[in-house]
């Protein structure tokens, strides 16, 4: 009897010991990474995935967010809305993620946001479509944009066209939310200055040739063609333009006018093309901290601005979990992300620094590596832009454009 009693008491003691904080299993916070490992976004997807890993490792090395370890489950969006939806459903229903980060293209974000809204889960993305700003798509304000809107891209295109001295621009747009948003943003800004767009063409995806659409634009004799395009279609259009022998210039978004375009077409065809892309927050301590870690991880720091955006998404999510707790609802987390991503608090540049300030009861404002963030009422940001020009097969940065 005494032996049985001793055994029971020992078992109770062991159970109590195992339940103590020192031996309790650490809480977790599930994060979904939905990045474009394949498809049009593939030049950026691997870097985005690595940047998320870097950020999560930093958060966990600092003791986690409010005691919770961040755990990442990943899916390839394939830069395609249908694949993104399938990946998001798996992350939401199987991995039970409380936030979805790393989404790249507008088509993906527009397809996925209804799912995250229904699940009351945050969606952090790098998409430009204007529809992602407010109702009805982002009526719950669970979506956060870390890239410039297509409208802001269009304004940057207009500033660059003006600076370069062009007077007769035309536009060519891929028929989706992003492509149309870019060229419509340009046209709006250009016409607001009392100027004319001489031709505008919208073309369909997955065509073997765009010769007829191109000829329609060239008949207007533009001195520059502004595109809302992706790499595959841009490659075809530029090849057919070069074969036509017509002399005109091009302003193309950076995700289409990149090193892969030069590789596909060669220096002669791409000479003089202006590539426009947002630039990271290069003067900020957060960028310097990120760039060092990203460089060691093999990320093309200057050539992949989206990786810095993905890094910021994970860091500010960690800070929001630290502030609201790992069991907070999506709505509660969204309020903290917005608060931490706007001015008014003590400026912080790393998760560890922000965690320390939050534990001391201070309000913090995270200054990102990709931009200063400073979310507006739609949870959008306004980063700076840069104009690169392709010269002798190399992308050469020429100047910064601030809106």
Automatic annotation (TrEMBL):
Is Signal tagged as a keyword? yes
- Residue span of the signal peptide, if any? 1-24
Q: Where is the Leucine-binding protein domain?
A: 29-348
List, alphabetically, the Pfam families matched. Answer: Peripla_BP_6
Q: Which domain of life is it from?
A: Bacteria
Q: Which residues form a coiled coil?
A: none
Q: Which family does the UniProt entry place this protein in?
A: Belongs to the leucine-binding protein family.
Q: Do you know which PANTHER family this protein is assigned to?
A: LEUCINE-SPECIFIC-BINDING PROTEIN, PERIPLASMIC BINDING PROTEIN OF ABC TRANSPORTER FOR NATURAL AMINO ACIDS
* UniProt keyword terms in alphabetical order: Signal
Name of the featured protein: ABC transporter substrate-binding protein
């Amino acid at each position: 009897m005494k032996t049985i009693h001793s055994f029971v008491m020992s078992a109770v003691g062991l159970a109590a010991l195992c339940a103590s904080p020192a031996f309790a299993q650490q809480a977790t916070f599930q994060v979904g990474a939905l990045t474009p490992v394949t498809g049009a976004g593939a030049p950026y997807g691997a870097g985005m995935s690595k940047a998320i890993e870097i950020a999560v490792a930093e958060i966990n090395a600092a003791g986690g967010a409010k005691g919770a370890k961040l755990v990442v489950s990943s899916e390839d969006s394939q830069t395609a809305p249908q694949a993104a939806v399938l990946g998001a459903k798996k992350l939401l229903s199987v991995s039970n993620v409380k936030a979805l980060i790393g989404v790249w293209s507008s088509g993906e974000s527009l397809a996925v946001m209804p799912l995250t809204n229904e699940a009351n889960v945050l969606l952090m993305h790098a998409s430009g479509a204007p529809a992602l700003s407010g109702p009805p798509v982002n009526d719950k304000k669970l979506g956060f944009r870390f890239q410039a809107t297509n409208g802001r891209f269009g304004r940057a295109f207009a500033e660059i066209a003006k600076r370069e001295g062009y007077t007769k621009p035309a536009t060519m747009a891929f028929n989706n939310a992003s492509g149309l948003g870019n060229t419509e943003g340009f046209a709006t800004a250009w016409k607001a200055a009392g100027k004319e767009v001489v031709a505008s063409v919208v073309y369909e995806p997955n065509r073997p040739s765009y010769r007829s659409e191109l000829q329609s634009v060239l008949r207007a004799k533009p001195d520059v063609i502004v595109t809302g395009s992706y790499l595959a279609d841009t490659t075809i259009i530029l090849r057919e333009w070069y074969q036509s022998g017509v002399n005109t210039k091009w302003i193309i978004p950076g995700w289409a006018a990149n090193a892969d375009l030069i590789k596909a077409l060669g220096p002669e065809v791409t000479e003089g093309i202006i590539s426009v892309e947002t630039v990271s927050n290069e003067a900020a301590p957060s960028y310097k901290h990120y760039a060092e870690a990203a460089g060691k991880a093999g990320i093309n720091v200057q050539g992949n601005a989206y990786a810095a955006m993905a890094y910021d998404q994970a860091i500010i999510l960690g800070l929001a979990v630290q502030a609201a707790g790992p069991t907070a609802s999506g709505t509660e987390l969204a309020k903290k992300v917005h608060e931490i991503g706007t001015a008014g608090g003590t400026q912080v540049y790393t998760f560890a620094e922000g965690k320390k300030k939050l534990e001391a009861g201070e309000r913090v404002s995270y200054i990102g590596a990709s931009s200063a963030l400073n979310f507006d009422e739609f949870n959008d940001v306004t980063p700076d832009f840069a104009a690169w020009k392709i010269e002798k097969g190399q992308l050469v940065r020429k100047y910064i454009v601030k809106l």
